[in-house]
Amino acid sequence: MIDLPTVSGDLKIDLHSHSNCSDGALKPDELVACAAAAGVEVLALTDHDTVAGLELAQQSAGVYGLQLVPGVEISASWHAQAIHVLGLWIDPASPQLMSMLGAQGERRQARMRKICARLEKLGLPGTELLAAVQASPGVPTRSHLANAMVAGGHVNRADDAFRKYLGAGKSAHVAPDWPALDAVVGWIRAAGGVAALAHPARYSLSAGARRRLLTDFAAAGGTALEVVSGGNGAQHAESLAALAVKHGFMGSVGSDFHSPQLTWNPLGRSLKLPDCVTPVWRGYINK
């Protein structure tokens, strides 16, 4: 566990980032170096369904004098909707969490095999694409597959792969089989972590469904919303801050950084939490 110091208003915090242990472009130590260069002082590494990069990131954090918050971003299901939950200040050695993440990895592998089999039936080299994804570091994601399709000349851009083949309702799409939201929150809490709902504005939900999601998330033990997230405008932060206050959640901030090439979510970008929301880091150190 890493305790945060008393947080001043100008401390630069980023509690959502990815390395190449999931679908990020940088190795964990490179990510930490990039964050330090951007002035980030407190960074959470929150790779998708894996904690494999935390040890190397922690070593690098010591070199740069940056505080690393051990984290993870876990895929969950809520009424057939895929939801991402951030686990912050987790114990990465938690046996229950490790077992659950192992099962998540198996789900990802099985889904990738099914997707590539569909691509094969569509006339694409699914077997070769699967091999390319499996040769990549980290857990397999559709982003890895999209990049492999670009490298093979099958599409021009990764976005084209999703638009034509991999997106929901497209010819090679396979619906994920993620565990229930309440189970995921329970695993995070059992690992000593704080459960925060990642990028709440990104889900395709009606206002009523979003309220029900937040109610269920709170009932499961979720305690924070990512009020400020990479790519979200000020209007999103204001509306999410209001929802956080209404439902009694603390607020988190994170860039959702994946790559230096993606300009919409650089590390530490304008991540100021609205004053009306209690910071999740303050709630944590006051426990």
Question: What topology emerges from the helices and strands here?
Answer:
Blueprint: E1 13-14, H1 28-37, E2 42-45, H2 54-64, E3 67-78, E4 81-88, H3 95-121, H4 126-135, H5 142-151, H6 158-166, H7 181-190, E5 194-197, H8 207-220, E6 224-229, H9 234-247, E7 250-254, H10 280-285
Parallel strand pairs: 1-2, 2-3, 5-6, 6-7
Antiparallel strand pairs: 3-4, 4-5
Helix pairs in contact: 1-2, 3-4, 4-5, 5-6, 7-8
Provide the descriptors you would attach to this structure in a database record.
287 residues; alpha/beta; DNA polymerase, domain 1; 2 domains; seven-stranded mixed β-sheet; 7 strands; 42% helix; globular; disordered N terminus
Number of helices: 10
CA-CA gap between termini: 13 Å
CATH architecture assignment of the largest domain: Alpha-Beta Barrel
Write down the overall geometry.
globular
Number of structurally distinct domains:
2
What are the low-pLDDT stretches, counting only 5+ consecutive residues below 50? Answer: 1-8
Q: Helix and strand succession?
A: EHEHEEHHHHHEHEHEH
In terms of DSSP E residues, the strand content is 5-15%
The helicity comes to 40-55%
Task: Compute the number of strand runs.
Answer: 7
The named CATH superfamily of the largest domain: Metal-dependent hydrolases
CATH class of the largest domain: Alpha Beta
Instruction: Give me the CATH fold name of the largest domain.
Output: TIM Barrel
Strand order, sheet with most strands: 1-2-3-4-5-6-7
